[in-house]
Amino acid sequence: MALDKPYLDVPGTTIFDAEQSRKGYGLNQFCMSLMKADNRARFKANERAYLDEWQMTEEQKQAVLARDLNGCIRTGGNIYFLAKIGATDGKSFQQMAGSMTGMSEDEYRAMMVGGGRSVEGNRFIGEDGSAQAHRQPQGQAGKA
Amino acid sequence: MARITASVYTSHVPAIGAAIDMEKTQEPYWQPLFKGYEFSKQWMKDNTPDVIFLVFNDHATAFSLDMIPTFAIGTAAQYTPADEGWGPRPVPVVQGHPELAAHIAQSVIQQDFDLTIINKMDVDHGLTVPLSLMCGQPSAWPCPVIPFAVNVVQYPVPSGQRCFNLGKAIAKAVKSFDADLNIHIWGTGGMSHQLQGPRAGLINKEFDNAFLDQLIADPASLAQKPHIDYVREAGSEGIELVMWLIARGAMSDVNEGKTLPKVAHRFYHVPASNTAVGHLILENT
Questions:
Q1: A77 and A106 together in one domain
Q2: Which pTM does this prediction carry?
Q3: What is the extent of the structural domain holding A74?
Q4: Would the CB atoms of A16 and B153 count as touching at under 8 Å?
Q5: B171 has a chain A CB within 8 A of its CB
Q6: In this complex, do A100 and B196 lie within 8 Å of one another by their Cβ atoms?
Q7: Judging by DSSP bridges, how do beta strands B71-74 and B145-150 pair with one another?
C-alpha cells in the first residue's frame, strides 16, 4: 500500500524522508566525517581517494566531486549534512543554497535582501513560479 | 515548587551567530536584525530565570545518520559548543541542570512521550544562537540550560499537535518539581525558509505573521496545522516551527485555563542569510 507522502508535488523540493535517508546513509556519513579537521585535510588532499573509503554510489561520488548539491540531494543527501562540504570549501550556507538555483551569488543574495522567493506559483508542480522545472536554471544563467 | 513564567521564541540562523562572533552586528545588513533584540537582552537581564528549558534541533552535529532521536532531553552537567565545520563558536560552555532534567524526563516519559536521555552532547548553533541573541556576549551564560532536541531534519518529524501536547506534559512535569525555580521555556528555529533545491530562498511573510498571530491567540488550533502546510507555505526547513508549539503548549493559559499570556515583545525581519527571523516573548499572567 502506498505511503502518505503529500509533499511530492512541491516544486524544486526534495523532502529528506526515511526513504531518502536510507539511500543517502553513506553520502551523509561521509559529510559528517568532515567535521574533523584531520578528515577535511585528507579529503582536500585527494578527494577521489577519500570518497572511495565510503559506501557511496558512483553517482553520489560524482555529485560531490562536481559540488552538484542538487545531485547530492536527489541521491539521498541532506542539506545539513552537505553543509559540511561547504564548510570544508569555505562556503557560507547562503552560497550553498544559492548554488542550487543556478543564480550567481550576487543574484541570490539580492533576491534574499529583496524579501526572498515568493511562494506564488511555487506551491504545486505545474504552476509558473521561479522554482518550477521549466524555469531552471534561474538568473542570468537561464537567459543565455 | 518550580514554575514556568515565560516563553521565548526565536529563529536560530547560523549566520546570526557568525555575525555576532565576527563583530558585524552594526553593519547595515545586520543592524536592523540586532535592533529587534535590544529589548530582549534588557528583558533577560530584568527577568533572568533560574533555568532555561531550550527546545531546539540538532543540525547533523550531535546526531549523525547512525541514529536520530525524535525527542531527546539533556541530563548532563554541561555541554560544549560544537565544531560544525567552521570551528566551534567562541561562546561559553552551557551548564545543564541534571536534577531538573532527570525529573522532567521521568515525568514526561510516564506521560507517554518516548524521550531519549542524553548524558553527553555537543550543542550546535540551534542552541547557542538563541542564547547569544538573548544574552549578548557574556563570559558565562546567565543560568543553567536544559537542552531538548527535536528531530525536524529527517521526515516524518513530529506533528504540531504532538509537539503542543508535549509542551503540556513538560508543564506538568515542571510543576511537580519541589525546588522553587523560575523557568523559561524557549522554542527556536524557523521562520519560513528553504535551504535546498531550485526553491531555495523561499520566504512567506504572510504565513509567518499569521503564524505569530495564531501562536499568541489560538495555539490549540495552530497545533492542528499539518506538516504539508509548513512545507508548501513556509519552505522545507520552515517545518522547524513545530518546535515553537512545544514552548507554547507549556504556558499557563493552555494548562490552567488562565488568560492569554502577555506579549512582552514581538519582532519580525527578512532576511538573515536564507531565512525569515521571527521573535516573541510571552509572559504568563
A1: no
A2: 0.97
A3: 16-88
A4: yes
A5: no
A6: yes
A7: antiparallel
